[in-house]
């Protein structure tokens, strides 16, 4: 399977009266790290399972290089489920070799690849241990090795950083960067939005089964509202209440973060802040990915 684009095109899925996905559409390009974020139950895992053929879509299509994904295509996808899908009583090395062979690798190549990934992911001392005897973090490392051992052409990872310590996060981040640099499309979901912001070329935000925003982090931030950080040490709670187009996001010590709507006047905010006393900081900035995500979730709960 050559390098190419993984496309999710208007995929919908319903469970009785519950709409899990509604016209889900995005693509993951060759050599791209694509972050897939949303609240619990937003539809991320369902989308991934449909891409892998674990679930059937009610409508829409998943394509690789313009053609519908087939069983043979799926053999070349590396998938890491959020819930651990390993055999608990099987030894780490034996398990990785077995999974590589299931994907069509010859035994000798499977052995070499398994040993390589065991070493790379810091599992050399655990290769003869049963998976059930490993810590949760090491089980997660084995799960990643299982997704990589057959040298896949696409990576689909559901919460790959869950339960990992900072060192393991760094190792996994480097592995994903290397895979993308080699031309592999990589899509992963995560609730660690600072990590998504740092790693990903593009990000898709999912809400209630639909993709509500998609682009580079900078594009998403530029399209978001303007935030204003004001440090007014003598101000009392609610000092900015009543200002047109202004919403208080949070207060930390003497610093207040405000969201400015289209009709907001930052000079009116400055005047109100100065009316309370000295102003030590008055900074306009774009929201972080975490703040954008919170805004989307707030809209979801308000709908």
TrEMBL record:
Coiled coil: none annotated. InterPro entries: AAA+_ATPase (IPR003593), ABC_transporter-like_ATP-bd (IPR003439), ABC_transporter-like_CS (IPR017871), DrrA1/2-like_C (IPR025302), P-loop_NTPase (IPR027417). Keywords: ATP-binding, Nucleotide-binding, Transport. The keyword Transport applies. SUPFAM superfamilies: P-loop containing nucleoside triphosphate hydrolases (SSF52540). One of its GO terms (molecular function) is ATP binding. Residues 6-233 form the ABC transporter domain. Belongs to the ABC transporter superfamily. This is ABC-2 type transport system ATP-binding protein. It comes from Saccharothrix variisporea.
């Amino acid at each position: 399977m050559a390098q190419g684009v993984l496309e999710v095109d208007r995929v919908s899925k319903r469970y009785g009266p519950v709409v899990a996905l509604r016209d889900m559409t995005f693509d993951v390009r060759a050599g791209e790290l694509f972050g897939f974020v949303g609240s619990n139950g937003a539809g991320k895992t369902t989308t991934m399972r449909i891409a892998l053929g674990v679930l059937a879509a009610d409508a829409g299509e998943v394509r690789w290089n313009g053609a519908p994904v087939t069983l043979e295509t799926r053999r070349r996808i590396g998938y890491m489920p959020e819930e651990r899908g390993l055999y608990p009583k099987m030894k780490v090395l034996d398990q990785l070799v077995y999974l590589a062979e299931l994907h069509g690798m010859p035994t000798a190549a499977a052995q070499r690849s398994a040993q390589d990934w065991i070493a790379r992911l810091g599992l050399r001392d655990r290769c003869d241990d049963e998976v059930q005897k490993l810590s949760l973090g090491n089980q997660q490392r084995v799960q990643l090795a299982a997704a990589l051992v057959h040298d896949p052409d696409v990576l689909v990872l559901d919460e790959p950083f869950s339960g990992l310590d900072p060192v393991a996060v760094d190792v996994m981040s480097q592995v994903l960067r290397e895979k993308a640099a080699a031309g592999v499309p990589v899509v992963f979901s995560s609730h660690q939005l600072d990590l998504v912001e740092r790693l990903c070329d593009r990000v898709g935000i999912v809400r209630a089964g639909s993709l509500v925003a998609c682009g580079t982090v900078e594009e998403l931030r530029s399209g978001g509202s303007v935030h204003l950080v004001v440090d007014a040490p003598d101000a009392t709670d609610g000092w900015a209440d009543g200002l047109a187009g202004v919403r208080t996001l949070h207060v930390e010590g003497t610093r207040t973060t405000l969201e400015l709507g289209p009709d907001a006047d930052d000079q009116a905010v400055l005047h109100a802040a100065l009316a309370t006393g000295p102003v030590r900081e008055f900074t306009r900035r774009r929201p972080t990915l975490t703040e954008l995500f919170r805004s989307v979730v707030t809209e979801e709960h308000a709908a």
